[in-house]
């Protein structure tokens, strides 16, 4: 458990810094580029994002089997796994680049963009697909670091390169340089990130040898047998969470994509808060599965779901209740008027999605993820059908409603289904999540009272209310038993270790 908590802390340090910097600098970037250019930038990343399904679930397979082989001391199998994955990613990455260079004009023609941005759109597509292809080819090495549970190193690299990338983008946008110089510099930072990741991955794999000539059909079949359903999950989730932006660009002026993105950026706080746990828990579940330790897996499932609930429930309530106030202070009243209802709907949808987060991790780690693939594909199909019906009538609000409804009707039932598959005891599960839900209801009443009677205005008042509310919610879970004594002890030990390590570095 100490290893889990330590890796979680490193993951959160990287995540919080990156997302906080992004949120702070987004107004500068949007204003500097303008609504049309930023909307175009967002849609291009949606188009390129569809190519991420070319991962085919191989990245998840690498994480799982590196963790498993490392636990079993099978060094040669790790080398074979990396070589096969690198060969596959190289083929897929080159294919993606060729297709975009051939059909860039077709991609651009389906979007409602101003004529003066058509040439820019093509150039940005070319640069972005090169960046994507390089990231895909070398992503096997970041998966290696995750599988070896060297998340401290991976996050240090991410913090360094993300800070450079986001800061430079804001500076260039402020100075009026436009999209082409911005994406060109982002490509350079991606290459730097790749270099550092490969260096440290090969450093920790002391017996590493990359073989680009030999063919390993047995290992390839093993990877595909695991990655097939991971690919379906990834494709379904990608279609569900990005198609709305593309269809907004098809049915509405491209500037409306920016309004949608503003609301989505805040709602994604809920998605990114638990995401560091995936890199930590997936290799842990794989290890426990290899050792047939199903008692610990059940414990991890129940406690993990409870802590996800404790983490996101109060924040989702704050985002929902104060949506207009937050957007007005962050981006201005015009964006608040256009995006506040989008934020409310997406907050509900993302919260429903995160409810199934631990189910996803456990089933993936045990290679029993077929059921997730079914629900993920269903969510994507429901979302597309609703988008095609609602966006022409209701614009960005229709897109947000479609996404939220698709999450709710698929991911909440998925949790019950996965518990039945894993033979998780429902009484134990309900007992664990009861207190966080109870305090969540109380917290909702308090937040609504503050909204209508205190009516906080300005950043200082909103931040004060938010921090105070979160502190009270977490405190009641702490003293009321929502956070168990053994977890409090582990967190206390980690806090002491962090302080001790910081003191040693200062003294040195």
Strand-residue proportion: under 5%
Number of strands: 0
Shape: globular
Average pLDDT metric: 79
Written description of the protein model:
The chain is mostly helical. It is built from 18 helices and no strands. It has helices at residues 2-33, 35-50, 58-71, 75-109, 118-147, 151-174, 179-204, 217-251, 255-272, 276-290, 294-321, 323-331, 333-355, 357-365, 370-422, 426-454, 459-480, 485-507. Helix 3 packs antiparallel against helix 4, helix 3 (58-71) crosses helix 10 (276-290) and helix 9 (255-272) crosses helix 13. The chain is globular, with a radius of gyration of 23 Å. It starts with a helix and ends with a helix.
Helix-strand blueprint:
Layout: H1 2-33, H2 35-50, H3 58-71, H4 75-109, H5 118-147, H6 151-174, H7 179-204, H8 217-251, H9 255-272, H10 276-290, H11 294-321, H12 323-331, H13 333-355, H14 357-365, H15 370-422, H16 426-454, H17 459-480, H18 485-507
Helix pairs in contact: 1-2, 1-6, 1-9, 1-10, 2-5, 2-8, 2-9, 3-4, 3-5, 3-8, 3-10, 4-5, 5-7, 6-7, 8-9, 8-15, 9-13, 9-15, 10-14, 11-13, 11-14, 11-16, 11-17, 12-13, 13-15, 16-17
What descriptors fit this protein?
mainly alpha, globular, 87% helix
Q: Can I get a quick summary?
A:
By secondary structure, this protein is an all-alpha fold. The protein contains 18 helices and no strands.
């Amino acid at each position: 458990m100490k290893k889990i908590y330590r890796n979680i802390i490193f993951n959160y340090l990287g995540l919080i810094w990156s997302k906080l910097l992004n949120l702070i600098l987004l107004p500068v970037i949007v204003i500097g580029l303008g609504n049309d250019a930023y909307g175009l930038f967002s849609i291009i990343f949606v188009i390129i994002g569809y190519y991420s399904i070319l991962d085919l679930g191989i990245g998840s397979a690498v994480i799982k089997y590196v963790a498993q082989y490392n636990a079993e001391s099978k060094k040669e199998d790790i080398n074979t796994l990396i070589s096969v994955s690198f060969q596959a990613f190289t083929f897929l990455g080159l294919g993606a680049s060729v297709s975009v260079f051939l059909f860039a004009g077709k991609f651009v023609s389906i979007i409602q963009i101003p004529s003066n941005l058509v040439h820019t759109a093509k150039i940005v597509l070319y640069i972005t697909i090169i960046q994507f292809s390089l990231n895909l080819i070398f992503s096997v090495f970041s998966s290696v670091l995750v599988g070896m549970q060297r998340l401290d190193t991976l996050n240090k690299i991410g913090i360094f390169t993300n800070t450079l990338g986001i800061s430079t983008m804001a500076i260039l946008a402020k100075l009026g340089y436009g999209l082409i110089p911005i994406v060109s510099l982002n490509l350079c930072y991606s290459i730097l990130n790749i270099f550092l990741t490969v260096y440290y991955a090969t450093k920790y794999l002391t017996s590493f040898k990359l073989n680009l000539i030999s063919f390993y059909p047995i290992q390839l079949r093993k990877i595909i047998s695991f990655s097939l359903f991971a690919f379906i999950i990834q494709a379904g989730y990608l279609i569900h969470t990005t198609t709305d932006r593309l269809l907004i660009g098809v049915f509405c002026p491209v500037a409306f994509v920016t309004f949608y993105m503003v609301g989505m950026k805040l709602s994604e706080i809920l998605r990114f808060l638990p995401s560091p746990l995936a890199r930590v828990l997936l290799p842990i579940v794989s290890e426990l599965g290899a050792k047939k330790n199903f008692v610990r897996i059940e414990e991890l499932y129940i406690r993990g779901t409870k802590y996800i609930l404790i983490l996101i429930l109060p924040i989702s309530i704050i985002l929902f209740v104060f949506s207009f106030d937050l957007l007005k202070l962050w981006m201005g009243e015009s964006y608040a008027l256009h995006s506040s209802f989008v934020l409310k709907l997406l907050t509900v949808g993302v919260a429903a999605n995160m409810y199934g987060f631990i189910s996803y991790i456990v089933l993936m780690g045990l290679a029993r993820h077929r059921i997730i693939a079914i629900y993920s594909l269903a969510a994507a199909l429901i979302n597309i059908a609703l988008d095609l019906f609602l966006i022409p009538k209701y614009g960005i609000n229709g897109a947000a409603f479609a996404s939220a409804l698709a999450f709710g009707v698929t991911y909440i039932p998925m949790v019950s289904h996965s518990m039945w598959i894993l033979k998780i005891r429902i009484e134990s599960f309900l007992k664990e999540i009861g207190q966080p839900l109870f305090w969540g209801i109380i917290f909702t009443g308090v937040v609504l009272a503050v909204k209508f009677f205190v009516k906080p205005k300005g950043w200082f008042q909103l931040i004060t209310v938010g921090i105070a509310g979160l502190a009270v919610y977490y405190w009641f879970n702490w003293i009321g038993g929502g956070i168990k004594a053994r977890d409090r002890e582990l967190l206390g030990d980690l806090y002491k270790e962090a302080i001790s390590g910081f003191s040693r570095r200062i003294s040195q």
